[in-house]
Design goal:
Strand content: 25-35%
Helix content: 40-55%
Structural class: alpha+beta
Strand order of the largest sheet: 1-2-3-6-10-7
Number of helices: 6
Largest sheet: 6 strands, mixed
Order of helices and strands: HEEEHEEEEEEHEHHH
Radius of gyration: 31 Å
Length: 286
Protein backbone atom coordinates (compact mmCIF):
# COMPACT_ATOMS: atom_id res chain seq x y z
CA UNK A 1 0.00 0.00 0.00
CA UNK A 2 1.57 3.31 -1.09
CA UNK A 3 1.14 5.87 1.72
CA UNK A 4 2.56 8.63 -0.51
CA UNK A 5 -0.28 8.18 -3.01
CA UNK A 6 -2.84 8.29 -0.19
CA UNK A 7 -1.28 11.49 1.20
CA UNK A 8 -1.26 13.08 -2.28
CA UNK A 9 -4.91 12.17 -2.77
CA UNK A 10 -6.02 13.63 0.59
CA UNK A 11 -3.93 16.82 0.38
CA UNK A 12 -4.80 17.48 -3.29
CA UNK A 13 -8.51 17.17 -2.46
CA UNK A 14 -8.20 19.56 0.50
CA UNK A 15 -6.22 22.31 -1.26
CA UNK A 16 -8.02 21.86 -4.59
CA UNK A 17 -4.81 21.67 -6.61
CA UNK A 18 -3.05 18.86 -8.44
CA UNK A 19 0.09 17.64 -6.69
CA UNK A 20 2.73 16.23 -9.04
CA UNK A 21 5.12 14.98 -6.35
CA UNK A 22 5.00 14.90 -2.56
CA UNK A 23 8.07 14.37 -0.38
CA UNK A 24 7.44 13.52 3.26
CA UNK A 25 9.64 15.10 5.92
CA UNK A 26 9.13 13.52 9.37
CA UNK A 27 9.35 15.99 12.24
CA UNK A 28 8.90 15.25 15.88
CA UNK A 29 8.60 16.91 19.24
CA UNK A 30 9.57 15.14 22.44
CA UNK A 31 8.53 15.83 26.02
CA UNK A 32 8.09 13.93 29.28
CA UNK A 33 4.67 13.45 30.84
CA UNK A 34 4.93 11.77 34.23
CA UNK A 35 8.23 10.13 33.19
CA UNK A 36 6.74 8.78 29.99
CA UNK A 37 8.53 9.65 26.76
CA UNK A 38 6.01 11.19 24.38
CA UNK A 39 6.67 11.71 20.68
CA UNK A 40 4.17 13.78 18.70
CA UNK A 41 4.62 13.76 14.93
CA UNK A 42 3.62 16.70 12.80
CA UNK A 43 3.34 15.98 9.11
CA UNK A 44 5.46 18.13 6.83
CA UNK A 45 5.71 17.76 3.07
CA UNK A 46 7.41 19.45 0.15
CA UNK A 47 4.87 19.44 -2.66
CA UNK A 48 5.37 20.11 -6.35
CA UNK A 49 2.04 21.59 -7.43
CA UNK A 50 0.95 21.74 -11.05
CA UNK A 51 -0.06 25.23 -12.25
CA UNK A 52 -1.13 26.69 -15.64
CA UNK A 53 2.35 28.24 -15.88
CA UNK A 54 4.19 25.04 -14.94
CA UNK A 55 5.00 23.96 -11.39
CA UNK A 56 5.59 25.55 -8.00
CA UNK A 57 7.18 24.15 -4.85
CA UNK A 58 5.50 24.69 -1.47
CA UNK A 59 5.81 23.47 2.11
CA UNK A 60 2.63 21.77 3.36
CA UNK A 61 2.29 21.26 7.11
CA UNK A 62 -0.51 19.29 8.73
CA UNK A 63 -1.31 19.50 12.43
CA UNK A 64 -4.14 18.24 14.60
CA UNK A 65 -5.52 20.04 17.66
CA UNK A 66 -7.65 18.44 20.35
CA UNK A 67 -7.70 21.48 22.63
CA UNK A 68 -8.36 25.15 21.92
CA UNK A 69 -5.20 25.86 23.93
CA UNK A 70 -3.08 24.33 21.13
CA UNK A 71 -2.97 27.74 19.41
CA UNK A 72 0.34 28.75 21.01
CA UNK A 73 1.89 25.42 19.98
CA UNK A 74 0.83 26.08 16.39
CA UNK A 75 2.26 29.62 16.47
CA UNK A 76 5.62 28.42 17.79
CA UNK A 77 5.84 25.67 15.21
CA UNK A 78 4.88 28.05 12.40
CA UNK A 79 7.66 30.40 13.52
CA UNK A 80 10.10 27.48 13.35
CA UNK A 81 8.94 26.74 9.81
CA UNK A 82 9.57 30.32 8.68
CA UNK A 83 13.02 30.33 10.31
CA UNK A 84 14.16 26.87 9.14
CA UNK A 85 16.97 26.70 6.59
CA UNK A 86 15.42 23.46 5.34
CA UNK A 87 12.62 25.53 3.80
CA UNK A 88 14.99 27.53 1.63
CA UNK A 89 16.11 26.53 -1.87
CA UNK A 90 18.71 27.90 -4.27
CA UNK A 91 17.14 29.87 -7.13
CA UNK A 92 19.56 29.42 -10.02
CA UNK A 93 18.88 32.64 -11.88
CA UNK A 94 21.28 33.21 -14.83
CA UNK A 95 22.23 36.74 -13.79
CA UNK A 96 22.29 36.42 -10.00
CA UNK A 97 21.57 33.16 -8.11
CA UNK A 98 19.96 33.67 -4.68
CA UNK A 99 18.33 31.77 -1.82
CA UNK A 100 14.55 31.56 -2.00
CA UNK A 101 12.08 30.80 0.83
CA UNK A 102 9.42 28.24 -0.04
CA UNK A 103 5.78 29.34 0.49
CA UNK A 104 3.86 27.55 3.27
CA UNK A 105 0.38 26.03 3.21
CA UNK A 106 -0.91 24.96 6.63
CA UNK A 107 -3.74 22.47 7.23
CA UNK A 108 -5.27 22.24 10.71
CA UNK A 109 -7.59 19.44 11.85
CA UNK A 110 -9.51 20.71 14.89
CA UNK A 111 -11.05 18.32 17.39
CA UNK A 112 -12.92 21.25 18.96
CA UNK A 113 -15.42 23.77 17.55
CA UNK A 114 -14.60 27.33 16.55
CA UNK A 115 -16.58 30.05 18.29
CA UNK A 116 -18.37 31.78 15.41
CA UNK A 117 -18.72 29.37 12.48
CA UNK A 118 -20.02 25.87 11.85
CA UNK A 119 -18.35 25.57 8.43
CA UNK A 120 -16.67 22.15 8.32
CA UNK A 121 -13.85 23.31 6.03
CA UNK A 122 -12.52 26.87 5.93
CA UNK A 123 -9.99 28.24 3.48
CA UNK A 124 -8.02 31.27 4.61
CA UNK A 125 -6.93 32.79 1.30
CA UNK A 126 -4.76 35.84 0.90
CA UNK A 127 -5.48 38.57 -1.62
CA UNK A 128 -3.29 41.45 -2.81
CA UNK A 129 -5.35 44.65 -2.72
CA UNK A 130 -4.29 48.04 -4.07
CA UNK A 131 -5.42 50.28 -1.19
CA UNK A 132 -5.70 53.39 -3.39
CA UNK A 133 -7.84 51.91 -6.18
CA UNK A 134 -9.37 49.05 -4.18
CA UNK A 135 -8.62 46.65 -7.05
CA UNK A 136 -7.12 43.18 -6.63
CA UNK A 137 -3.55 42.62 -7.81
CA UNK A 138 -3.40 39.28 -9.62
CA UNK A 139 0.36 38.82 -10.04
CA UNK A 140 2.08 37.23 -7.05
CA UNK A 141 5.19 38.75 -5.48
CA UNK A 142 7.93 36.53 -4.08
CA UNK A 143 8.50 38.91 -1.16
CA UNK A 144 4.85 38.68 -0.05
CA UNK A 145 4.56 34.94 -0.74
CA UNK A 146 7.59 34.27 1.46
CA UNK A 147 6.18 36.16 4.45
CA UNK A 148 2.48 35.20 4.37
CA UNK A 149 0.62 31.95 3.80
CA UNK A 150 -2.74 30.34 3.06
CA UNK A 151 -4.40 27.98 5.54
CA UNK A 152 -7.11 25.35 5.64
CA UNK A 153 -9.04 24.71 8.86
CA UNK A 154 -11.10 21.52 9.21
CA UNK A 155 -13.59 21.31 12.08
CA UNK A 156 -13.94 17.57 12.74
CA UNK A 157 -17.11 17.94 14.91
CA UNK A 158 -18.98 19.38 11.89
CA UNK A 159 -17.94 16.72 9.36
CA UNK A 160 -21.13 14.77 10.13
CA UNK A 161 -23.22 17.41 8.34
CA UNK A 162 -24.50 16.91 4.77
CA UNK A 163 -21.69 15.79 2.48
CA UNK A 164 -22.43 17.74 -0.69
CA UNK A 165 -18.90 17.74 -2.15
CA UNK A 166 -16.14 15.24 -2.91
CA UNK A 167 -14.02 16.92 -0.24
CA UNK A 168 -16.63 16.39 2.49
CA UNK A 169 -17.13 12.79 1.37
CA UNK A 170 -13.40 12.14 1.71
CA UNK A 171 -13.08 13.97 5.03
CA UNK A 172 -15.98 11.98 6.45
CA UNK A 173 -13.41 9.27 7.31
CA UNK A 174 -12.35 11.62 10.13
CA UNK A 175 -15.94 12.04 11.41
CA UNK A 176 -15.88 10.98 15.07
CA UNK A 177 -19.61 10.18 15.01
CA UNK A 178 -18.90 7.12 12.86
CA UNK A 179 -16.92 5.26 15.51
CA UNK A 180 -17.96 2.17 17.44
CA UNK A 181 -17.63 1.85 21.22
CA UNK A 182 -14.00 1.09 20.45
CA UNK A 183 -13.11 4.62 19.34
CA UNK A 184 -10.45 3.31 16.95
CA UNK A 185 -12.89 1.46 14.70
CA UNK A 186 -14.67 3.48 12.02
CA UNK A 187 -18.20 2.44 11.08
CA UNK A 188 -17.76 3.10 7.36
CA UNK A 189 -18.21 1.00 4.25
CA UNK A 190 -15.90 1.10 1.27
CA UNK A 191 -18.91 0.99 -1.08
CA UNK A 192 -20.17 4.31 0.32
CA UNK A 193 -17.18 6.11 -1.19
CA UNK A 194 -16.32 6.94 -4.81
CA UNK A 195 -13.79 4.58 -6.38
CA UNK A 196 -11.01 7.20 -6.29
CA UNK A 197 -11.25 7.45 -2.46
CA UNK A 198 -11.46 3.74 -1.68
CA UNK A 199 -7.67 3.33 -1.35
CA UNK A 200 -7.88 5.69 1.65
CA UNK A 201 -10.49 3.44 3.31
CA UNK A 202 -8.44 0.32 2.59
CA UNK A 203 -5.34 1.93 4.09
CA UNK A 204 -7.19 2.89 7.28
CA UNK A 205 -8.65 -0.59 7.63
CA UNK A 206 -5.21 -2.10 7.09
CA UNK A 207 -3.63 0.21 9.70
CA UNK A 208 -6.25 -0.66 12.33
CA UNK A 209 -5.57 -4.37 11.81
CA UNK A 210 -1.87 -3.93 12.71
CA UNK A 211 -1.19 -4.68 16.43
CA UNK A 212 1.53 -2.04 16.84
CA UNK A 213 -0.75 0.64 15.38
CA UNK A 214 -3.54 -0.31 17.79
CA UNK A 215 -1.07 -0.23 20.69
CA UNK A 216 0.16 3.23 19.64
CA UNK A 217 -3.43 4.53 19.47
CA UNK A 218 -4.17 3.12 22.94
CA UNK A 219 -1.11 4.91 24.35
CA UNK A 220 -2.19 8.13 22.60
CA UNK A 221 -5.64 7.82 24.22
CA UNK A 222 -4.05 7.53 27.67
CA UNK A 223 -1.83 10.55 27.03
CA UNK A 224 -4.72 12.64 25.68
CA UNK A 225 -6.78 11.74 28.75
CA UNK A 226 -3.88 12.89 30.95
CA UNK A 227 -3.63 16.13 28.96
CA UNK A 228 -7.39 16.62 29.25
CA UNK A 229 -7.22 16.17 33.04
CA UNK A 230 -4.21 18.49 33.17
CA UNK A 231 -6.08 21.17 31.21
CA UNK A 232 -9.05 20.92 33.59
CA UNK A 233 -6.72 21.16 36.60
CA UNK A 234 -4.98 24.22 35.14
CA UNK A 235 -8.36 25.86 34.41
CA UNK A 236 -9.47 25.17 37.99
CA UNK A 237 -6.23 26.60 39.43
CA UNK A 238 -6.50 29.67 37.19
CA UNK A 239 -10.04 30.25 38.50
CA UNK A 240 -8.81 29.93 42.10
CA UNK A 241 -5.99 32.40 41.41
CA UNK A 242 -8.46 34.78 39.73
CA UNK A 243 -10.76 34.63 42.78
CA UNK A 244 -7.82 35.18 45.16
CA UNK A 245 -6.62 38.12 43.07
CA UNK A 246 -10.13 39.56 43.22
CA UNK A 247 -10.20 39.22 47.02
CA UNK A 248 -6.75 40.81 47.30
CA UNK A 249 -7.91 43.65 45.06
CA UNK A 250 -10.99 44.16 47.27
CA UNK A 251 -8.82 44.15 50.42
CA UNK A 252 -6.42 46.64 48.85
CA UNK A 253 -9.39 48.83 47.95
CA UNK A 254 -10.66 48.68 51.55
CA UNK A 255 -7.18 49.50 52.86
CA UNK A 256 -7.00 52.41 50.44
CA UNK A 257 -10.41 53.65 51.64
CA UNK A 258 -9.31 53.32 55.29
CA UNK A 259 -6.10 55.21 54.56
CA UNK A 260 -8.17 57.90 52.86
CA UNK A 261 -10.46 58.08 55.93
CA UNK A 262 -7.43 58.32 58.23
CA UNK A 263 -5.96 61.06 56.07
CA UNK A 264 -9.25 62.98 56.19
CA UNK A 265 -9.41 62.56 60.00
CA UNK A 266 -5.84 63.79 60.30
CA UNK A 267 -6.75 66.80 58.19
CA UNK A 268 -9.74 67.49 60.47
CA UNK A 269 -7.55 67.13 63.59
CA UNK A 270 -4.95 69.40 62.04
CA UNK A 271 -7.61 72.01 61.26
CA UNK A 272 -9.04 71.75 64.79
CA UNK A 273 -5.56 72.06 66.25
CA UNK A 274 -4.99 75.13 64.15
CA UNK A 275 -8.30 76.65 65.35
CA UNK A 276 -7.47 75.87 68.99
CA UNK A 277 -4.05 77.49 68.60
CA UNK A 278 -5.63 80.60 67.16
CA UNK A 279 -8.16 80.77 70.01
CA UNK A 280 -5.37 80.39 72.57
CA UNK A 281 -3.46 83.14 70.89
CA UNK A 282 -6.48 85.47 70.99
CA UNK A 283 -7.09 84.69 74.66
CA UNK A 284 -3.47 85.45 75.49
CA UNK A 285 -3.73 88.76 73.66
CA UNK A 286 -6.71 89.74 75.85
Amino acid sequence: MDDNKIAKLIISTIIGEEIETLDFRPTEYRSDIERRSLTVYRLDFIAKIKTPEGFRLVIIEIQKAKFATDIMRFRKYLAQQYASDENIIEANEPLEPYRKALPIISIYFLGHKLEHTKAPVIKVQRKYIDIISGSEIKDKEEFIESLTHDSFVIQIPYLKEKRQTDLLILLSVFDQSTVYEDTHILNIKEDDFPEKYRPVIRRLQYAISEPHVRKTMDVEDEILEELDNLERTIASKEKEIEEKDKKIEEKEKKIEEKEKTITEKNDVIENLTSIVEELKKKLEEK
